[in-house]
Design a protein that fits this description.
The structure is a single chain. The protein has 263 residues and is an alpha/beta fold. The protein is built from eight helices and nine strands. The strands form two sheets. Strands 3-2-1-4-5-6-9 form a seven-stranded parallel sheet, with helices on both faces. A two-stranded parallel ribbon has the order 7-8. Strand 5, helix 5 and strand 6 form a beta-alpha-beta unit. The longest helix has 29 residues. It is globular, with a radius of gyration of 18 Å.
Length: 263
C-alpha cells in the first residue's frame, strides 16, 4: 500500500528516543521530511533518520513552554515549507520510577504530567492547526497509553484518558477542515529502556531475565512485547492520507490485552 507520504512534512515530538524516534524513522522511510523535536537533540537519532535521504531538522524545544512550541513550529514552516503531520510523543515514559498509591498522589505530580503530556500535546496541536487547516490537510496523532484502560496507576490513567478526550475534541473541531486527530495506546513496548526494565523485574521477582521477559510477554495476546517499530508502523498509517476514515478514535497498539473485550 502506498501511504502517500512522500514529500510530506512531519513534526515528531519526543523524537530522540523510544517510540518517537521509531515513528520519525518510519516516516522518513516513507518519504517524509521530519522535524525531530526533543529537549536535547541527539546526533545519533538524526543520523538514524537521515539515512533514508529525506530532510531531517533537529530542534530543541520544551513542550511545556508555549513560546518554545510556537518558535519550533515557525522554524519548521520556515525551513521545511509547511507542516502536514504532527506526532505528539513527548512524555515521561509510563511506569518510570515508583508509582504512588492513588491516595498518596500529590498535586505536583499530576500537574507535571499534565504540563507535558496533556497541555504539551495541546500546545503543539494548537500551533500546527492554522497551517494544516489553511492547506485543507493535516494529520495529528497523539501517543497515549493503555493505562487509560487500567485503574492500577492514577497518574497513568488520568493523563492518558485526558489525551483521549483532547483527541476527540480536536477531531470534532478540525475534521471538517481536513485535519484528522487520532490517539494510539501503546502498552509495554520494547525500546532502549527495556533491558533495564527486564533486569529490574527479574531482581524484584527473584527470577532469571529470560523468565522476567516471558512474564512481561504474557501480558499480551501475542505472548511477547510489541516493539517500538511495530507501534510506529500503525502510527505511520494514521499519518497517511489513506487513514481519513479514522478520526477522534483510540487505536490500541499493545499486542492485545488478554481477557477483555473492547467494542
Amino acid at each position: 500500500m502506498d501511504l502517500q507520504l512522500t514529500g510530506r512534512r512531519a513534526v515528531v515530538t519526543g523524537g530522540s528516543r523510544g517510540i518517537g524516534l521509531a515513528v520519525a524513522d518510519t516516516l522518513a522511510a516513507e518519504g517524509c521530511d521530519v522535524a525531530l523535536v526533543s529537549r536535547t537533540p541527539s546526533d545519533e537519532a538524526v543520523r538514524r533518520v537521515a539515512r533514508h535521504g529525506t530532510r531531517v531538522l533537529p530542534i530543541a524545544a520544551d513542550t511545556t513552554d508555549e513560546a518554545a512550541v510556537q518558535a519550533m513550529v515557525a522554524q519548521v514552516v520556515a525551513e521545511l515549507g509547511g507542516v502536514d503531520v504532527l506526532v505528539n510523543a513527548a512524555a515521561q515514559p509510563a511506569g518510570a520510577g515508583p508509582q504512588p498509591a492513588a491516595a498518596e498522589t500529590t498535586d505536583a505530580l499530576l500537574r507535571e504530567q499534565f504540563e507535558t503530556k496533556v497541555l504539551g500535546y495541546l500546545r503543539c496541536a494548537r500551533a500546527v492547526a492554522p497551517h494544516m487547516t489553511a492547506q485543507g490537510f493535516g494529520r495529528i496523532v497523539n501517543v497515549s497509553g493503555l493505562n487509560a484502560r487500567a485503574s492500577t496507576s492514577l497518574v497513568g490513567s488520568v493523563r492518558n484518558v485526558s489525551v483521549a478526550a483532547l483527541t476527540a475534541a480536536l477531531a470534532e473541531d478540525l475534521g471538517p477542515r481536513g485535519v484528522t486527530v487520532t490517539v494510539v495506546h501503546p502498552g509495554l513496548t520494547v525500546t532502549e529502556r527495556t533491558p533495564g526494565m527486564i533486569a529490574a523485574k527479574a531482581a524484584a521477582d527473584g527470577t532469571s531475565q529470560e523468565e522476567a521477559e516471558r512474564a512481561l510477554g504474557r501480558s499480551t495476546r501475542l505472548g511477547r512485547l510489541v516493539t517500538a517499530e511495530e507501534v510506529a508502523d500503525v502510527i505511520a498509517f494514521l499519518c497517511s492520507p489513506r487513514s481519513v476514515a479514522i478520526n477522534g478514535d483510540a487505536v490500541a497498539v499493545g499486542g492485545g490485552q488478554p481477557g477483555v473485550t473492547y467494542y
